[in-house]
């Protein structure tokens, strides 16, 4: 590691004086977050987040149950005829990390708190690495205001945002453990990873751990070369203990998720035959060819274009978001397009089917990142460069299939995720960190080469003389990329796939040409914008190294440049037009159709909204829905949707107890289905089949009111049988999401089918209080062999995974609390013993 000059020690100052810069930084972050989300903080508005609205619809039943009963609902019937709440809305009392999150957010409302946490955690990372506070603020702003952070909040991906916000804590702990204090670093790593895992966005955690793995490989090679392998092993072991603790705190959530994943649509179908397709449609992939993860085409549906990588530097290179507002001075306006259409025009002309906005790192950040490749310590620069390159390659997805298909098939767990463009979050972490370390390397108090007489020019120090050419090289490269992009733009036609649709809708050749001219203007204007910011940042560093600008004003100017650069682009995708006065509760006002259905006070029945049924949760807010909105529904239910419900199999809808149909027709908004079979019924015949495919095929021909089909390969105890069901009856007497009670009277023993989704890990059946086994019938439903006479049946959802997981989470939470207390004692004693800062402000990584 290169020796560096340290700043004058401030250890003699009282602790409160040393804390002042950090307190001011935190207050600055609060001001920034509140200012960006001023409509929420000062105007009483909310952010219109599509996914959060959908979440509220799907979670409503479970949340209301928890509010009334004082305990969690582990199952809900509000979506897809029934599913666990593990990935919808479930609290684990044993996981105490939520209290730590609340403390860190200072009571700020959601989304405001997300941005604040991103800034705070970025700052903690950089201060832990010895970066001076004001420079750490610049790095934190670069991390927090990356355009993707704000774009995902606009979409409602709050958990993704939080997982990204906590990532710098994990990286900070990693670096401090290996490069500085192993005990403090391991504690920071454990806390950061605990919070990151707690928010339950495993794809972000996966990408973060890829960056951690790259660091570990580079550090291992360095340790072997330097003969430090035993010390490396000790520090690695400490981090492994921290990781185990983090997993332990969220073990309940991880355990139930792992259990559910076996049954979700993120796993393969049990069906061997391909689903039938409509005439002219490409045949579906054979499920037998699928692995244990998602389908490859599905995973790579959102792949970043190879050329789109330049948006890291030039945000509007491909037109920005799928639709963007154009002003009255635009080419389209001059061509005569009415002003009311200018608010949302298809400016994007890249390869993606949809984008909420490009991933923009910032022109200043890109310049500093390039500078970091010249001036930051080798191990660190190689790590962050490798992470950035891997991030870009993974994000290309199907556009670099030779590499990415291999990774998809071989990298453990990678095939569980979709939207590979999200891999750019690795670069989103790596580039600002390297940029901040580069800035720290340049903006450091240094002595001149020799004393000078008053009034004479101060000569450059040897260090400044060595750094100045590197700053100029980095600036030339960053500016050169902008110039090349500008020149290349004259060879583009700026045509987009959507242009054909515009022509069909009446866009004249003149209007289409004007739109393409606007796309060109968006690109070229952002090139000039980038050159301006790069030039300004280059000037700051140049004059500092020339001795004409001191450290503090130079750092302050860099903070402003980074902030203004990113803020301006962020507002394109999360601007004031994204806020509304309407609250979530006000969005869920019952429609006339809902009001008609809610007059039916029966305990349980289902509703199908034919308007986009499997991508909306508005219906789920008021009713038990056949459809819903969730990325991980049960695999068997997805099979049922694809092969039966989508083919309008009325008998299948009857067996799911679909009593009402919301039509979307103002004249007849609701239709009642007289064929709905109710909550449970006796069948007169049981037909065993040999496979899941045969079971699914049988649903196309059987009458579920009298017949039940059972897969004998899964339930060999159920034989073919016929029953006399005359005089037998059954009724639901009590309903709650995870407990159902029935009363029946049977003239002879028989089989009862329930219009409830079968889920093996948790649902228990009881007859007169005694546990009895139940089976699956009709591919997705529960069925139970019952004796003759009058009896009571109960179904209770009591998954062992929740109970065991919650207990482990509680034990780990207590352990984490002890670690935090122990770390506080360790820090206090070390300060007493050494009398100095535990982590001083000498930038050891530069």
From TrEMBL:
<feature type="region of interest" description="Disordered">
    <location>
        <begin position="269"/>
        <end position="292"/>
    </location>
</feature>
<feature type="transmembrane region" description="Helical">
    <location>
        <begin position="527"/>
        <end position="544"/>
    </location>
</feature>
<feature type="transmembrane region" description="Helical">
    <location>
        <begin position="20"/>
        <end position="42"/>
    </location>
</feature>
<feature type="transmembrane region" description="Helical">
    <location>
        <begin position="205"/>
        <end position="224"/>
    </location>
</feature>
<feature type="transmembrane region" description="Helical">
    <location>
        <begin position="419"/>
        <end position="439"/>
    </location>
</feature>
<feature type="compositionally biased region" description="Low complexity">
    <location>
        <begin position="274"/>
        <end position="287"/>
    </location>
</feature>
<feature type="transmembrane region" description="Helical">
    <location>
        <begin position="106"/>
        <end position="127"/>
    </location>
</feature>
<dbReference type="Pfam" id="PF09586">
    <property type="entry name" value="YfhO"/>
</dbReference>
<feature type="transmembrane region" description="Helical">
    <location>
        <begin position="808"/>
        <end position="828"/>
    </location>
</feature>
<feature type="transmembrane region" description="Helical">
    <location>
        <begin position="551"/>
        <end position="569"/>
    </location>
</feature>
<keyword id="KW-1133">Transmembrane helix</keyword>
<feature type="transmembrane region" description="Helical">
    <location>
        <begin position="382"/>
        <end position="399"/>
    </location>
</feature>
<keyword id="KW-0472">Membrane</keyword>
<keyword id="KW-0812">Transmembrane</keyword>
<dbReference type="InterPro" id="IPR018580">
    <property type="entry name" value="Uncharacterised_YfhO"/>
</dbReference>
<feature type="transmembrane region" description="Helical">
    <location>
        <begin position="74"/>
        <end position="94"/>
    </location>
</feature>
<feature type="transmembrane region" description="Helical">
    <location>
        <begin position="471"/>
        <end position="492"/>
    </location>
</feature>
<feature type="transmembrane region" description="Helical">
    <location>
        <begin position="354"/>
        <end position="375"/>
    </location>
</feature>
<feature type="transmembrane region" description="Helical">
    <location>
        <begin position="236"/>
        <end position="255"/>
    </location>
</feature>
<protein>
    <recommendedName>
        <fullName>YfhO family protein</fullName>
    </recommendedName>
</protein>
<feature type="transmembrane region" description="Helical">
    <location>
        <begin position="134"/>
        <end position="155"/>
    </location>
</feature>
């Amino acid at each position: 590691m290169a020796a560096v000059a340290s700043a004058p020690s401030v250890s003699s100052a009282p602790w409160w004086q040393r804390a002042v810069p950090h307190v001011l930084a935190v207050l600055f972050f609060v001001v920034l977050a509140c200012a960006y989300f001023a409509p929420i903080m000062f105007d009483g508005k909310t952010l219109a987040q599509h996914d959060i609205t959908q979440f509220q619809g799907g979670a409503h039943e479970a949340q209301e149950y928890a509010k009334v009963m004082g305990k969690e609902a582990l199952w809900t019937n509000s979506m897809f005829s029934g599913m666990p709440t593990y990935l919808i809305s479930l609290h684990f009392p044993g996981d105490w990390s939520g209290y730590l999150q609340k403390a860190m957010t200072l009571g700020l409302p959601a989304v405001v708190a997300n941005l604040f946490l991103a800034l705070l955690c970025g700052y903690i990372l950089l201060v832990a690495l010895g970066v001076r506070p004001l420079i750490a603020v610049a790095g934190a702003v670069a991390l927090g205001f990356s355009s993707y952070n704000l774009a995902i909040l606009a979409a409602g991906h709050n958990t993704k945002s939080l997982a990204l916000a906590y990532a710098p804590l994990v990286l900070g702990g990693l670096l401090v453990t290996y490069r500085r204090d192993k005990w403090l670093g391991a504690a920071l790593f454990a806390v950061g990873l605990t919070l990151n895992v707690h928010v339950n966005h495993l794809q972000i955690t996966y990408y973060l751990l890829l960056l951690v793995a790259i660091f570990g490989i580079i550090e291992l090679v360095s340790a072997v070369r330097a003969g430090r392998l035993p010390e490396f092993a000790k520090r690695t072991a400490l981090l492994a203990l921290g990781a185990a603790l983090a997993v332990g705190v969220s073990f309940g959530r991880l355990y139930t998720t792992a259990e559910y994943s076996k049954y979700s649509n993120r796993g393969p179908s049990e069906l061997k035959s391909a689903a039938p397709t409509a005439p002219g449609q490409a045949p579906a992939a054979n499920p037998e060819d699928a692995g244990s993860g998602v389908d490859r085409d599905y995973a790579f549906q959102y792949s970043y274009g190879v050329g789109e990588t330049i948006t890291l530097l030039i945000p509007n290179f491909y037109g920005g978001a799928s639709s963007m507002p154009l002003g009255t001075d635009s080419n389209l306006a001059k061509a005569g397009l009415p002003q009311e259409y200018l608010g949302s025009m298809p400016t994007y002309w890249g390869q993606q089917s949809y984008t909420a906005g490009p991933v923009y790192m910032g022109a200043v950040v890109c310049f500093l990142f390039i500078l970091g490749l010249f001036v930051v310590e080798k191990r660190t620069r190689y790590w962050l460069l490798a992470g950035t390159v891997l991030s870009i390659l993974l994000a290309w997805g199907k556009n670099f299939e030779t590499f990415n298909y291999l990774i998809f098939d071989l990298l453990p767990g990678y095939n569980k995720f979709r939207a590979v463009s999200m891999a750019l979050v690795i670069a989103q972490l790596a580039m600002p960190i390297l940029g901040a370390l580069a800035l720290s390397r340049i903006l450091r108090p240094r002595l001149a080469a020799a004393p000078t007489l008053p009034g004479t020019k101060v000569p450059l120090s040897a260090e400044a003389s060595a750094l100045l050419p590197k700053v100029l090289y980095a600036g030339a490269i960053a500016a050169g990329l902008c110039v090349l992009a500008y020149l290349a733009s004259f060879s583009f036609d700026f045509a987009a796939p959507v242009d054909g649709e515009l022509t069909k809708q009446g866009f004249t050749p003149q209007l289409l040409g004007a739109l393409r001219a606007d796309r060109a203007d968006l690109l070229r204007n952002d090139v000039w914008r980038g050159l301006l910011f790069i030039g300004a940042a280059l000037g700051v560093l140049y004059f500092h190294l020339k001795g004409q600008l001191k450290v503090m004003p130079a750092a302050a100017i860099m903070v402003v440049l980074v902030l203004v650069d990113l803020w301006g682009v962020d507002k394109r995708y999360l601007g004031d037009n994204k806020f509304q006065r309407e609250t979530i509760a006000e969005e869920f006002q019952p429609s006339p159709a809902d009001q008609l259905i809610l007059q039916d006070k029966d305990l349980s029945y289902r509703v199908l909204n034919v308007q986009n049924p499997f991508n909306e949760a508005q219906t789920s807010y008021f009713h038990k829905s056949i459809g819903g909105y969730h990325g991980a529904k049960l695999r068997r239910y997805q099979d049922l949707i694809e092969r039966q419900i989508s083919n309008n199999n009325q008998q299948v809808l009857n067996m799911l107890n679909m009593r009402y149909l919301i039509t979307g027709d103002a004249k007849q908004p609701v239709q009642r289905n007289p064929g709905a079979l109710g909550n449970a019924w006796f069948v007169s015949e049981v037909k065993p089949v040999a496979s899941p495919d045969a079971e699914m095929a049988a649903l196309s021909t059987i009458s579920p009111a009298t017949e039940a089909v059972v897969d004998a390969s899964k339930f060999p105890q159920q034989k073919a049988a016929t029953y006399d069901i005359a005089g037998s009856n059954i009724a639901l007497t009590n309903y709650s999401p995870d407990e159902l009670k029935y009363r029946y009277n049977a003239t002879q023993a028989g089989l009862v089918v329930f219009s409830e989704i079968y889920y093996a890990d948790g649902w228990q059946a009881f007859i007169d209080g005694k546990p009895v086994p139940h089976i699956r019938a009709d591919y997705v439903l529960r069925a139970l062999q019952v004796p003759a006479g009058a009896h009571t049946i109960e179904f209770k959802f009591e998954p062992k995974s929740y109970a065991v997981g919650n207990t482990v989470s509680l034990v780990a939470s207590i352990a984490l609390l002890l670690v935090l207390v122990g770390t506080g004692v360790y820090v206090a004693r070390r300060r007493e013993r050494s009398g100095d800062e535990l982590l001083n402000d000498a930038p050891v990584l530069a």
